[in-house]
């Protein structure tokens, strides 16, 4: 492919742009130098989608949007910009119009749902630090999980209820990675969301929610496939 797209990475709840660290290194090693990672405020879907749109608008050429976890909802809402050539979902929410991440979660609750919340006095929702490793990233080393737990970026609890308006996956090519041992988004929910998008490829990885950190190689394989398809 002569013109590689700029790859814009969108993080999810309980993490920031640095959750993409291993994928960034792997993409760079494979010759993808035009890389950006959004740092979303996690204050509302509207705020996060607008932050992502602003970054995409700074790119003059084609953009491939990649979202992990709640980041999938963000790119679903923000991915309709004309220079977005595709959407890659990494163990991510892909709501339809009128759906929210919270609604999808309640339909098929994940294994670790009891380890989240309740909201603190300011309305932010945290994963219990002592349960973070087994809930979010059970197949990472304990030291990596500890850093993720302590540096987790909590969303406003109300963000879970924010619904999609016009899902970009209905108009853009998609790719989806299912984490079969995910304890934060039920794997069957992931399969259901992927199936209704009719993605160009669905990949199942035997890993937990933080597949972008536990299996960066296979995750990067899927991103590169999407980048080359554009």
TrEMBL record:
Highest classification ranks of the organism: Bacteria, Bacillati, Actinomycetota, Actinomycetes, Micromonosporales
SUPFAM superfamilies for the chain: alpha/beta-Hydrolases
Gene3D superfamilies: alpha/beta hydrolase (3.40.50.1820)
One MF annotation (Gene Ontology) recorded for this entry: catalytic activity
Protein name: AB hydrolase-1 domain-containing protein
Domain named AB hydrolase-1: residues: 7-216
Source organism per UniProt: Catellatospora citrea
Pfam families: Abhydrolase_6
InterPro entries tied to this protein: AB_hydrolase_1 (IPR000073), AB_hydrolase_fold (IPR029058), Sec-Metab_Biosynth_Hydrolase (IPR052897)
Residue stretches spanning the membrane: none
């Amino acid at each position: 492919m002569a013109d590689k797209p700029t790859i814009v990475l969108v993080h999810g709840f309980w993490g920031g742009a640095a959750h993409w660290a291993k994928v960034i290194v792997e993409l760079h090693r494979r010759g993808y130098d035009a890389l950006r990672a959004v740092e979303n405020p996690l204050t509302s879907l509207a705020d996060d989608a607008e932050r992502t749109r602003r970054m995409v608008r700074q790119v003059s050429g084609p953009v491939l949007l990649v979202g992990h976890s709640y980041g999938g909802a963000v790119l679903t809402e923000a991915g309709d910009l004309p220079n977005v050539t595709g959407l890659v979902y990494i163990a991510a929410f892909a709501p339809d119009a009128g759906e929210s991440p919270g609604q999808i979660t309640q339909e098929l609750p994940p294994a670790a749902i009891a380890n989240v919340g309740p909201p603190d006095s300011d309305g932010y929702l945290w994963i219990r630090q002592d349960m973070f490793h087994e809930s979010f990233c059970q197949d990472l080393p304990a030291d990596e999980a500890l850093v993720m737990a302590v540096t987790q970026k909590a969303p406003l609890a109300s963000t879970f209820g924010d619904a999609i308006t016009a899902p970009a996956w209905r108009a853009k090519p998609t790719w989806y990675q299912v984490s079969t041992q995910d304890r934060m988004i039920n794997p069957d929910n992931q399969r259901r969301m992927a199936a209704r998008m009719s993605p160009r490829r669905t990949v199942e990885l035997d890993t937990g929610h933080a597949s972008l950190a536990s299996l960066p190689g296979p995750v990067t394989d899927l991103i590169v496939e999407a980048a080359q398809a554009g």
